[in-house]
Structures are given as C-alpha cells and as structure tokens.
Predict the structure.
Amino acid sequence: MEAVKENIQAYNVTALRNKFPVLNVKVNRHPLVYLDNAATTQKPESVIKALESYYKNYNANIHRGIHHLAEKATAAFEETRTEVQKFLNAAYREEIIFTKGTTESINLVASSWGRKNLKENDEVIISTMEHHSNIVPWQLICEEKKAKLKVIPISDEGELDLDTFHSLLSPKTKMVSVVHVSNSLGTINPVEEIIEMAHAAGAVVLIDGAQSTAHLKIDVARMNCDFFALSAHKVYGPTGVGVLYGKKEILEVMPPYQGGGEMIGEVKFEKTTYNELPYKFEAGTPNIAGVIAFREALFFLNANNPTLIHEHEQRLLEYATEKISALDGIRLIGRAKNKAGVISFLLNGAHPQDVGVLLDQQGIAVRTGHHCTQPLMDRFGIPGTVRASLAMYNTHEEIDLLTEALLKAKKMLL
Amino acid sequence: MIEPLSIEKIEQEIIDDFSLFDNWEEKYEYIIDMGKKLPPLDDIHKKEENIIKGCQSTVWLVAEQKDGRIYFKADSDAVIVKGLISLLIRVLSGQTATDILGTKLDFINKIGMMQHLAQTRSNGLLSMIKQMKHYALAFNTVAS
C-alpha cells in the first residue's frame, strides 16, 4: 500500500496537464474533459513547438538536398527513425518505415507482402475485434489472390478464443494479423502467445499497435512479431505520421508499395532499380515536420516514465469501471481480465449518440458509434457503444465529472 | 379550409419558444420530449428505400403529396435526432413544393442547433433536409 501511495505522489498529473495547452479550453462553458484518446491523443507543447520550429527555421525537402537547410531537416528526420528504433527495440534502424499512419502501414504489408506471398487457397487470419483498417486491406488482397480470410472468435467478455485460433492454424496459414489492444473493448491480447503459435505454423505475424503504443511498453524483439504498425497521433505526436516496423529479412524481399521519388535507385525507361531499405517504401515527400515532431512525443513519453503512466492509467480504468458499472442500467461491453484504458458501455434504453450529445453539452468528449469495428458490434448484437478512453493526463476528478454527466443524461433521456 | 401558417411564421414560433429556455438542459429536454411525442413510423415504411443512413443513427423519411401540398412523416432510432426531425416536420410538412424549395431553414441556427447539422456523417439530419427538398423538387416537376 505504501508503495502505491508513493507512486501516486511521484506521478504529478497536474504538472503533466500543464504541458498540454488544449486541456485548458472550455467546451460549452465547461472545462474540457477529454476522454476520446483512443481516437487521438492531445499534443504536448514540445511537439507543437517542434512542428513550428521546422517551418520557421529549417523547412527544406529531405535526403537529396546539398544545402544547409536540407541537411538539417534530413538529420532531424533521420533522428526520429533512430528514436523509434530505440523506442520499439528494433534491431536495425532501416526496419523503421514512416507511413501516414497505422492504416497505411497495414495496407503496405497487405499490398506488397500479400501480392508476393499469397496464392489461391492460402489463408489469412484476423480476429473479430479488428478495426476496419485491419480487415479491409486483407479482404482486398484475399479477393485478388483467391486466398481465404479466417476470423478468430471472441468470448462474451471480449477475449480472443485461442483454442479456436489454434485449430484455424494450418500450413495454409500465411499471415496472422491481430490487434494488440482493442480500440472498442480495451482488451489487451496475449500477442506473444499468438505470435509463437503462428510462427509454429509457419505464418508471418502483423501486430496492429495503434492502441497499445501509448499505453504499454512495446518491445518488438521480445514480442518477436514480423510487423508492427502504429500511428504517431495516438502517441501524443502529430497526425499524418505512422510507423511500420518490419523484420529486415522480410522487408528486403518485399516489392515496393508505391512508385515515385525517394524509393528509386536508378530510373530508366527499360528498367528501374529500387532504393535500399527503408527508402524503398517511402515514395514521395513525407510528412517531414510531423516525423520530426514525433521524436518530441517519444521523448515526452520516456521522460514521464511509461511504467508510471501505465500504473496511473490502470488505476483510472479500475476507478472508472467501478463508478460507471455502479450506475443503474449500464451495460459494459468488454470485460476482459487484461484491459487498457477503454470503457465501452451502453445506457439501456438510450441511443449512444444521444448520450454523446448530452455529454458534449457538459464539456465531456467521448466517442459514440461502432468505432470502425462493425463486425465486433454485430458480435455483441449492438449498433454501437459510448466509449470513454483514457490517457496519461486524465484524472479521477474527470471520471467523477463523467459519472455525474452520465446521470444527468440518463435523467434527461429516460 | 384553413390556410396553414407559412414556413417563416412557424419558424418564428419555434424561435420564440426556444427563447424562453434559460439553459441547455431546458432546450434539450424540450427536444427530447418532442422526439418522444413524434408518432412512430409504421413498420411498413421502415424499408430500405426510405432510410437516410447516418454513420451512427438512422432516419426514415416518407413523403406524399395531397392537394398541392407535401406531407412528411419521419422517424429515427436516436431521440434527439427525432426531436429535431419533429421540428422540421412542423415547419415543412403541409407546405407547397415551391415554399419548401425556397426556404433556408434559418431557425435551426437561431435556436442554436447548427452543430447537429454539421454532424452529417453521424446522424443523417442534413441528408434528411436534402431529401425533403428532393421530394419537393420531384413533386414540383411532376405537377408542372
């Protein structure tokens, strides 16, 4: 107990909140309570300053310029790559590919790896709780290659059924692509176990880390995944920047995803040769400012001690779950034993959208709807949920405000 | 036969009603109440062709023309949307095609409900207004 108290004291959430300018705004005359972090997190001052500084002081296109600004911008851009490599514990910096976001990272793999490796009657396994971004790219390539898409079912609690997963695995399985943390349920999936099982069957594994990177310690070496996809904007960084981590030996034999500048070795009309990793997969001018500023987000996370952040979010999750489920007429969707900071629920008799509108009137930002996981909503037989999702800067007081606002919404609606 | 009030007059009535509310709670309670009071659409009308699909909530809209005027019936699975629908029906149902096509529906802004029109993808309300105007246009074309 003493140790817990010490950690609570060491985690100064007020000081932390002061680093996020937007947390001071008022919404509908109420102080903003931002609980839509699974959609996107807010940005600390240092990230905003880095974006501004690039445009003010050294805006230039990267990699081929020989002038001072181009060199400075290139160095800053490449420093982020090194920082991401360290953050994910990847073996080589060229295993880090910058994309627009998780969606593009997954599309890159489905398109490039899938086109080369999938053939008729091969199988790709995903799960019931995937975001549309980890469903549709696989549907597209499976249709093209006449391969089959198999789906791991889930329990009523929202946990993957690993026995069925085991029985789905066969020599036909070429790819297993599953989410690390569910954006709708908060379930933390046992990815290490899944990866081991898939590898034993000879399959390659992609982990969708969009929802896990800001909340769990990510170690791709320990996890032993073949691909890991993430979005910077869900990790306190800018929008329009994502990462695809891939094992070097797999990336090296994959064909390019898009053609254009940067990705080429030599272009002749007869034949073009391609650049080496990671540039082979980075056609066109990237989001230079965004990538540079993403480094500040990673510094920020590290400076605040990811372990303490995780503990804080877990305490909040426990508190929020207890308070919200104590209200009459609440149905929690997603009661996995191992969860990250997502509370999805329904207020019986009320449409989630109505609840969301009335919470917004009280300054509380939540998300309502199917959260881009329609098959998952179908699994529970619901059109959508109200979702409150937590981040490092949320407080117990904000959970109290959410609970009070929910009570008011309930009184008004029912 | 009593001539129905003009669109502008009904809009003004609604604006006057809303000016009596002191806070957001009263305003939304009124809209929710309107939503609950709107007669539900018969199931036979709740078919695919009458759906105006929003990303989150669904709106059903049917229209008929009688004696040169257009009458609307509508429903939604979300009660706040339904309350706003009820206001739109109060304003537009029973009007002529020309008047429906001509109105800008300024009252929505004046009663502070514009944000619900901005949420086009989630609640289908803006699409519903467009569809009401399409009906007016279609009936107008047939009539002329």
Q: What stands out?
A: The first strand of chain B starts at residue 51 and ends at 53. The interface with chain A takes residues 24-25, 28-29, 32, 55-57, 77-81, 116, 122-123 of chain B (CB under 8 Å).
